[in-house]
Design brief:
Blueprint lengths: L2 E4 L5 E4 L15 H11 L7 H13 L2 H9 L5 H11 L3 H12 L21 H6 L2 H14 L1
Antiparallel strand pairs: 1-2
Length: about 150
Amino acid sequence: MVKVVKQEHWGELHQLEPWESGKPKWRPRNLINEVNERLKEKGYEVLTKAGMNDHILYLMSIPKKELEDMVKDETLAYSSNVLAKRLLSERWDTALDNLMDRWIGKAIQREEIKSTVELTWNLTTAEVKDMTAEQMNEKRKTLLDNK
């Protein structure tokens, strides 16, 4: 049983007994699974990714009057009504962009990145000691050409 403790700031603190979990006993454990089962029994099917892609293509290709009729039709799937409403709204361009991104994918954006590259030479001290200045410059040039 929950113990109610009055607070100085006119609030209440609800404290559980040490053996209580606080989980309501009236809440069904597998509510989502039960709802899914009921929907299957009524004949509803899950929309597949391919089905959704086809649906988006149809919505993008039908006339405005047809979209207006879809918004009024309460027998259609809720997602169809929502998509039709978005395409008819003032922000239709954003809705269309979202549908295009879903159907085709986001446009590739290229950016040029400039940076400096530091080369590390893996030379032993014996190699460096025996090299002349000209040989070091040649080695540097070959490393720069191979990067």
